[in-house]
Amino acid sequence: MDRSLTLQLALALFAGALLNLTPCVLPVVPLKVRSILHEAGQTRGSRALSALLFVLGAWSLFVPLGLATALLHLQWGVLFQSRAALLALVATLLLMAWLGFRGRSLPLPGFIVQAGGGRYVEPYVSGLVSGILSTPCTGPLLGGVLVFALTQPAAHTVALFTAIGSGLALPYVALLLWPGLLRRLPRAGAWSAAVHRSFAWLLLAAALFFAQSVLPAWAGTPLWLALLVALAWSVLRLWRRGADRRTRAVALLAVLPVLALADLGTGFLDPGSVPWIALRGADAAQLARLHRPALVEYTAAWCLNCRVLEQTVYADPRVAQALHDGRFVALRADLTRPQPELQALLVGQGGAGLPFAAVLDAQGREVAHLSGLFDTRSLLRALALAGGKP
Residue 111's pLDDT is what? Predict the structure, then answer.
C-alpha cells in the first residue's frame, strides 16, 4: 500500500474518533449512552455484536458518501443544505425523543423481535445518526484528507471515508469490548430511567435546533421558550416526587446541554459586536475591489460549530476592536441554502466544510484562513497579517 495513502487512512481514523468531541455529535450521545447501558452486564458476544452494528451504522453513511465523492466529485460538508435531509434528521430525532420519554426502543417488525434482535437496532441507528450529525464538522477536521481523496482512485476514496466512519465508532466499540469499563457502571434503576428521560429532552432540543433551518424565522424563539418551560416543569415535578439524590443530579445535569442548545439556537446571549455585512453570490467577484482588508465568515443556520464561534470568538470585544482599527470589512457568507458562487469561493479559499473563515488583504488576496473551532488569539493573528492591529 502507498505510504501516503496509509498516512491519510490513519489521519482519517484519528480524526473520525475526534468527531465524538465536537458539538455536532452531541445530540446522538443519548443514543450511545442508552445502548451502552442496555449492553452492560450482557455477554461478550452480545456486546461485540452491538459494537459491530454501530460500526455498520456509521459505514451506512460514509461508504455511500465516499462513492458519491469518488464518482460525482460531491462537495463535502453541505449535506444539510438539503431540506429533505434536514426534515429526515428532525423526524428521526423527534421519534427517538418520543421513545425516550416513553422508555421504549424503536418499534420493530415481529420477525425481528421473535429472533431476539430487537435491542440490536438501536446501536445501528446510533451509528447512522452519529455519521449524519458529524458531517458539518467532518470537513474542518479532515480538510487535507478530503482534498487528497478527490485525487485518488475510487477504491482509495471509499477506503478513506470508511476509515472516518470507523474512527467515529471507535470509542463506542472500545467501551463495549472492554468489560472492565462497563462493569464500573452502576446497576440500572431509577437513575438510568432518568438518564433516558433527560436525554430525550436533549434529543428534542436537537430536533428544534435543526428544524429552525426550515421553519419561519419568527417561530424559533417561541418554540424554544415552550421547550424550556416544559423542561423546567418536568424537573420540578421529579424533585417534588422525592426522587433520590442520583436521579435528581441526572435531571439537573440534563438541563445544561439543553440550555446551551437553546442559546445557540436563539443567539439570546450573543452581543453581536461584529458589524457583519451579508455576502451574496453575485458579490463574490467584487472582493478584489474593496480596497480594504476583509474577514469572510462562512456559516449556516444548521452548523453547530458556527454558532459556537459566533457566540464566543466573534463576540470577543478584541475581535471587534481589531476589525475597527484595521478598517476591515466583515462579510458573512450564509450557506444554509445552496449558493454555488459562494461554495466555489469557499473551495477556492481552501475550505472543505463549515465553519470556515478567510482573511483577505486590501487587494482581495487571501493571507490566512481558519477552519473548524479556533480561538480568539488565532483569529487576531490572522487579522494582523492583513494589516489589522490586534
Answer: 37
Q: Looking at residue 346, which CATH number applies to its domain? A: 3.40.30.10
State how far the alpha carbon of 201 is from the alpha carbons of 28, 98, 145, 268, 342, in Å: 12, 9, 35, 20, 36
Number of domains in the chain: 3
Helix intervals (H) in the chain: 3-18, 29-39, 44-72, 83-102, 110-114, 121-141, 143-149, 154-177, 179-183, 190-211, 220-240, 245-266, 304-311, 317-325, 340-348, 376-385
Measured on CA atoms in the order 315, 316, 317, 322, is the torsion positive or negative?
Answer: negative
53/101 same-domain check: yes
Q: Kindly state the cell numbers that stand for 32.
A: 450511545
Residue-range definition of the domain harbouring residue 64: 3-183
| Closest C-alpha to 219, from 266, 164, 263, 289 | 266
pLDDT digits (tens, 9 = 90+) for 172-227: 888 777 756 655 555 545 555 666 677 778 778 888 988 988 888 888 889 999 99
| pLDDT per position as a tens digit, 248-307 | 666 677 677 788 778 887 776 666 678 899 998 888 778 878 888 999 999 988 887 788
Q: Assess if residue 282 is contained within a domain.
A: yes
For residues 137 and 108, membership in a common domain is answered with: yes
Across-strand partners of 299?
Answer: 334
pTM of the model: 0.66
Domain annotation covers residue 299: yes
- At residue 101, the pLDDT reads 78
